[in-house]
Amino acid sequence: MSAIDPATLKPAILQWGRELGFQAVGIAHIDLREDEAALQRWLDLYRHGDMEWMARHGLKRARPAELVPGTMSVVCARMDYLPADAAPMQETLDDPQRAYVSRYALGRDYHKLLRGRLQKLADRIADHIGPFGYRVFTDSAPVLEKPLARNAGLGWLGKHTNLLDSKTGSWFFLGELYTDLPLASDERATDHCGTCSRCIGACPTGAIVAPYELDARLCISYLTIELQGAIPESLRPLLGNRIYGCDDCQLVCPWNKFAQPTREADFAVRNGLDQATLVELFAWDEAEFLRRTEGSPIRRIGHERWLRNIAVALGNAKGTPEVIAALQARSTHPSALVREHVTWALARHAVTNAGY
């Protein structure tokens, strides 16, 4: 290690990362004291909701050298995921009979892809300098990936709390390589949100409670993906036809006019999920759900919560005979969670249809 020249190794790492398909690579220092204070406040306000794993590791999330002893610098990488072949987002959102799935989940699960590419990057570094200490992360451990990416110059934290880049917007995944290499960090990205607040106004549930502050308990991504139990009744009408995640804050962001479609075939749309109907997806039994979501991030919520989410969306859709029949077919489902949301949806249509 003493013979390594960090000044020549760093540009090589950045180049190797781009050759492996990352759109941008940068080096971050490990001083996250500013972000540690923000994390602690967020946890103290219980804005993480039922995501107990956010607090489980304490402040180790903001202390890379405690999470991985010996860490001196972090290689941060960014990969675009917006599928070029997907139906227009607003078109799907405007059709209450169709299901909206967050763009990141339309194709293959990104965890394995990014982890594999980062491992290849680590292997290439080792081929060049010999064995070194490292650990690969892709949203898989207590890591403050967005602040690290900001410190690596990959973008700034927007008012919606997503990472933003002035040249490519925000439709990208992040991954990290914690290393014991003494690499110089890149210049921290600066904020370019200015006076814009479109993301705050566009959030269907008001989850962006202040600029740069998100209450996960109100976020549709949390409600449809992370929440284990019942979706609060007061929020159900606000979900519209969003059955897995939400992209509204990104959809309205002016910087995303510069976003580029992904070049990764694995992120292409699978199973027509960019324009499938709610009734069609609600008809999947568990075996079909597991088959259709093989290799997809959607599988992690399981069939029960899949039906829960779609039942809410069907309650928000127009009460056509097809919609009513689909809901009635699940009214005696073995899951109390599914039955509760189906009952709510049918009651919504009973109230709506009472005026006819």
DSSP, total strands: 10
Question: What is the overall shape?
Answer: elongated
- Approximately what portion of the residues adopt beta-strand conformation? 5-15%
- The value of Rg in angstroms is 22 Å
| Ends distance | 78 Å
Mean pLDDT: 95
Which stretches are low in confidence, meaning pLDDT under 50 for 5 or more residues running?
A: none
Please give the largest β-sheet: 4 strands, antiparallel
Q: What is the spatial order of strands in the main beta sheet?
A: 1-2-7-4
Q: Helical region count?
A: 15
Outline the structure in words.
- Residues 184-213 form the 4Fe-4S ferredoxin-type domain.
- Pathway: tRNA modification; tRNA-queuosine biosynthesis.
- Catalyzes the conversion of epoxyqueuosine (oQ) to queuosine (Q), which is a hypermodified base found in the wobble positions of tRNA(Asp), tRNA(Asn), tRNA(His) and tRNA(Tyr).
- [4Fe-4S] cluster 1 binds at residues 193, 196, 199, 253.
- With 356 residues, the protein is α+β, with helices and mostly antiparallel strands.
- The chain has two domains: 1-95 and 104-237 and 246-270, no CATH class; 277-356, Leucine-rich Repeat Variant (Alpha Horseshoe).
- The protein contains 15 helices and ten strands.
- Strands 1-2-7-4 form a four-stranded antiparallel β-sheet, sandwiched between helices. The protein has a two-stranded parallel ribbon with strand order 3-10.
- A hairpin with a 5-residue loop joins strand 5 and strand 6 (163-164).
- The chain is elongated and about 75 Å long.
- The N and C termini lie far apart (78 Å).
- The model has no long low-confidence stretch (mean pLDDT 95).
